[in-house]
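Bug #77: duplicate submission created two jobs. Keeping one. Sequence:
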Amino acid sequence: MPEQFLEILKKGQSKKNADRIKDAVIADPLRIRELMHCFLSEDLRICQNASWPVGLLGIEHGELFVPYYDEMISAIQKPQHDAVVRNTFRVWQFMDIPEDFEGPIYDLGFSFLQDMKAAIAIKVFAMTVLVNIASKYPDLTDELIPAIEEQFPHGSKGFQSRAKKELKRLHQIASQANA
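Kept job's structure:
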């Protein structure tokens, strides 16, 4: 029997452990349930340690997370750790969000984007998710562009870099909608 993810995650957070779990889920996609159980755990250390392999899987295998939208939305509304929010938005930025979840995810992302206390990585990943959704609904650019521009002067270099890229996309979306 393969080593249980919970036991690996109890050993701590490391690139080696994250890669082992990621590779195990890729080899056996049904093990995503085991990983998500850890990621959504009430144990702060376990959910934090599980967030890294979740983020890695989201880059290339976002489809694995489709059955977990409801749980992920609930988890970021009352997160055990910033890592849960950060890696949830990291996963979502690479996915085509199903229509049923676009509204709630947009609202949550917008809240995190505007939250001055939110970590930069959360804001950056949420920004990309918001722009991805706005690409389907160009009217959202009317509120999203000013929200990003308002924070731009006060943002970190990382925030500003992503904001430039996403503002360019938003302006293209808006101009195509008005053409």
